[in-house]
Amino acid sequence: MASGRASPELLGIPIDLARHSITTKRGDEMERRPHLCAKATRRMIGPCLLCTLFFLPAAEATLGQEVREKVLPNGLKVILLENHRAPLVTFQVVYRVGSRNEEWGKTGLSHMLEHMMFKGTKKVSGSDFSRIIQENGGQYNAFTSEDFTVYFENLSANRIGVAIDLESDRMHNLVLREEDFRTERMVVMEERRLRTLDNPKGFLLEQLGATAFQLQPYHWPTIGWMEDIERFTLEDLKAYYRTYYIPSNAFVVVVGDFKTEDLLPQIERAFGSLPAGVAPDQKRDIDPAQTGERRVFVKREANLPFLTMGYHVPNVREPDSDVLEVISALLSDGKSSRLYQDLVLEAKVALDVNTGHPLLSHDPGLFMVSVEPLLGKEVEEIEKALDKQLERLQTEPVTERELEKAKNQLEASFTFGRDSLFRQGLLLASYEIASHWRGIDDYVPNIRKVTAEDIKRVAKRYLIPDNRTVGVLIPVAAKEGKPAPSGSPLQEKMVR
What we know:
This protein is α+β, with helices and mostly antiparallel strands. It folds into two domains: 62-271, CATH 3.30.830.10; 294-476, Cytochrome Bc1 Complex, Chain A, domain 1 (2-Layer Sandwich). Helix content is 39%, strand content 17%. A hairpin with an 8-residue loop joins β11 and β12 (365-373). α5 (160-172) runs parallel beside α10 (260-271) and α13 (379-395) packs across α17. The protein has helices spanning 8-11, 38-45, 109-116, 126-135, 160-172, 178-197, 200-212, 226-231, 234-244, 260-271, 320-332, 338-346, 379-395, 400-416, 421-434, 443-449, 452-462; strands spanning 25-26, 29-30, 67-71, 77-82, 88-95, 139-144, 149-156, 250-256, 294-301, 306-313, 350-356, 365-373, 468-476.
């Protein structure tokens, strides 16, 4: 390892992280929805410890107490968290813009602009950007979600100035060229073909989202509809950049080995002179309560059927979201979970079962339940088994032992996530987008308050047929000589 090179293990980033691909994994699966669902959040912030919870000293128990915040005169918020365990730092610039900020006919602009942000500024070309980071032993990447876009560098602590200079430069001085735009648009179109059009389960999940959401921008995929991507113009991107890539619509998160009194003046000098701009309105239409079950069927070349259900649920701003976190853990966290025990081990009708709760989405999202059936098993049989387990939550109190185990899983994952600088930063950013970063300290206490009666009440309110959209993949035989496509049941959550 070269001198000063940031260790990906210590930063909490997968070894095989490439510049053009970042995903947030749920075990071996990936979730379609880019906002952080319950299990995805736990995977991102630390390993899942199934039975025993090891407590940190009380003085170290709350992350928010260690964070320092300052809002610069131009509206840029700076969130700093010192962590001196290793001489490393993660520098993250977060823009409050994702696919939820787009309009009908212009879907995918957020993701497209993220690609173009690596094409260079008036001072630093795209190739020079990459070279500078690599010469300083660092890693860099970006991703777009429904709710926000993040650019980050992970470096040795004594190289933090490199990230500050590069990110402050491209916040205001990006050069958008027609030739780069045309080339990158073709890249994005091919990306969409690979991730969705050629992925039967990904295609189903996209159709389920479009069916479940009628008004909300979560109706369309983060990468955008192909027809919209084809119609993009360079002027569309320039206008989008001017509107959303401004200090008053962004914040910086830094976690690692630094002293706040030294780092903050550096950030102020680099970003403080940038014009504030006018922060765009973040309010968007919200779907009214669903009044009946919706179903979508997709026929694609595939080896096996696939069943997925999405139930409309609130996010972290509502108390019921804490109960839904526990429900998700009860249903599918580990091989001792209810759905895995019932469908995979006992009934032997499924290969795998997953749930996901959109705790940190900006707007209300979908509580997802997905099952990959075993060969020869009928979707109808599996759906009945799922309904039986959801009805059980509504009628039978969860045992004290089972409830405590689920809480321990959640709390252990949350606590041990502090071993990763990158994941600490991303968690702070995600809370800031969904509500406020200070909410991070409410997570464990709120989980601990959940009771068996809460679980019955919340399951009765949200996990009912009238509140769901059901998606079914019907496999059809591949054309002669062409293998049926395979892919993860749950698509990438964040697009790069």
